[in-house]
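One record is given unchanged without comment:
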Amino acid sequence: MKYYRGWQFVPMKGNAAMYYETGDDGSVSRFMTVIEGSGEIEKMPNPPMKRLFRPELLEQVSAEEFEKWWKG
């Protein structure tokens, strides 16, 4: 498995981190959005996206970082 993080600004809430868990083929198995400032975490165990689009634009992170938020 590979893990990625991207960032997006959410008006009136701050920056949101989007975390993706993918297989070696790029298929997305889990996805979540974390807004640390407000404490919001939206988890998607069966995300509607099936493949990660342009992973080279995202930052690769550790499984531990992903699981920290997923279990949070």
